Amino acid sequence: MNRSVPTILAMALLAALTLSACGESTPPQAKLDEPKAAGDEAGDTAAAAEARKGVMLNGAGATFPYPIYAKWADAYNKVTGLKLNYQSIGSGGGIAQIKAKTVDFGASDAPLTAEELDEAGLVQFPLVMGGVVPVVSIDGVSAGQLRLDPEALADIFLGKIKKWNDTKIQERNPDVKLPDTEISVVHRADGSGTTWILTNYLDKVSPDWHEKVGTGKAVEWPIGIGGKGNEGVAAYVQRVNGSIGYVEFAYALQNGMAHVQLQNKDGNFVAPTIESFTAAAESAGWKSAPGFYMVLTDQPGAGSWPITGASFILIYKEQADPALAKQMLEFFDWCFAHGAPMAKELQYVPMPDAVAELVRGMWRTRIASPAGSPVWQ
User: Fold this and answer.
1) pLDDT tens digit sequence for 259-275
2) What is the value of pTM for the model shown?
3) CATH topology for 132-284?
4) At residue 285, what are phi and psi to the nearest 5 degrees?
């Protein structure tokens, strides 16, 4: 079990480095798209492609999408030469940094309301969707073997259920031998959109959680120890027998962690997969969502994963450097147009084409230079 801890700690270190230097091999899709340098649809030219070389975009925020942002950045760099420096510091940090104008874009898994966006002069749009999953380290329990219902999950994080062989857990797992082991709760120590998604779900399904804790990027946890970032939580869970935490699914997959099955709104126990994330996202009404504000937790559907969420990009409506802003939007456009296969490899849900078109329409009408000229045409 401890052999995989260095892997996670290495990911934590990489989160502070330039993503274009992550060393991942170029995905086949990126190689196929190479003759069409990003932005062809917007009338790209050889000169424009040349201008991207050596350009550095700076972003900061959510750890939830870090694995796919790293993969996209590496592939895009090989296609265009543009580099992306993304600091995986948590959604709270991303919001703070974009508001302080220390980065070109922020990233958050907790969407801002239309009022919050207007007050800060920002716009937001979803770039990818995925799932937050409870992960456990229990001797003798493998991935997907443990089943938890909403009440039990909330009671564990509230500290009301203290041992793994508690009746409320054992009755849902009659074929699993659960030990008389104390439960060690691990949560995020930083302001986190992953925490916001999880607590939003718990707030919906547990009146006790709603009354005592609520929803937030950072909350007063009733119990547990904190880890910084998805990678920090994952590292703690892997080291401590009897522990439970929550991470973005790619972290669970890449580090061989044991996820649980959850009972969804329709009463079915489901595993976290791209199919169950997609099922939760299918009914989302993005077109009617002001400022693209959308919450995907506890969605109906027989196969829906109950802790699904989107990750959002935050940028200013008025762009002081229109040329750099255009290159930034070209990267995001490329992610929409060519990034789906890579997203699916890491068990993320790419945004539907119809949503990508809604986002491009927003870019045309809301993103402008100081003189009022549109950045994206």
Assistant:
1) 999 999 999 999 999 99
2) 0.80
3) D-Maltodextrin-Binding Protein; domain 2 (3.40.190)
4) -95, 70
